[in-house]
Amino acid sequence: MIHTAELIWQKIIDAGANKIGNFVELLNLQPGASEQEFRRLEETLGVTLPEEFKCFYSVYNGQIWNSGVEPVIRNLYFSPIAEIIDNWTFLQEEFDPDDDLVREIGEELKQVLWHSKWIPIAENGAGDYLCIDTDPSEKGNVGQILYYYHDWGNRSIEANNLFDFIEICLNEE
User: Fold this and answer.
1) Spatial contact of 35 and 76, defined as CB atoms under 8 Å apart
2) CATH of 2-172, one of 1.10.3720.10, 3.90.470.20, 3.40.1580.10, 1.10.510.10
3) SS3 10
4) What is the phi-psi region of residue 159: left when phi exceeds 0, alpha when psi lies from -120 to 50, beta otherwise?
5) Model-level pTM?
6) What is the pLDDT of residues 52-97, one digit of tens each?
């Protein structure tokens, strides 16, 4: 599976390089995550990480986001593991379960606006996160991908897993 992750990263880089000459430098990718970082993430969030995620992050541990950094796909910046933990902690503390957002939640998901078993792996800088669901409903799959919108109650599955999500995004371009 690590080979698949390497190929997906190469597809991302090739697609971006076709548009922007120094795309790989503008991604500000970080060296692959270590087993210790994966353990810390699992222990802090109380989840078991899907293998696709671990393989993907073994190649590059997200991006350091600052001025001039390009998103990996769509308008998403993949967070390093330390930032995933920070974002998850923030969402745990700041989420209001009594929020009056109109709920539009797919049947593959537990019927909540925020779930502690969602892993916020990427963000758009406006308070929205791409999440991996590690505790789906009976109709869902562990590892399915969804968006968490901070100001909209829509929660629906974007893809069955991280690799499928990235392939979908690459085919949009």
Assistant:
1) no
2) 3.40.1580.10
3) helix
4) beta
5) 0.91
6) 999 999 999 999 888 778 888 888 999 999 999 999 999 998 876 6
